[in-house]
Hints:
Strand content: 25-35%
Largest sheet: 5 strands, antiparallel
Structural class: mainly beta
Amino acid sequence: MNVKRGDCVKYIGSSREQVSWGNNSDPDGILVKGKEYVVADTEVHTSHTKLVLAGYDGKYNSVSFMKCG
């Protein structure tokens, strides 16, 4: 998934492994499955990408999201 600052993404859920991989932030109790969020920043690594969401602390694994639309 190719996302950039300002893009809309929908949270589709995450597994323990997706959270643990690369020391991502845990979305449990913070993000709502099916809700749309705005990407504030991205952090690209060799094997995964982290998303920073506008208005939320933390960095979340991009595989937990799909682009809106």
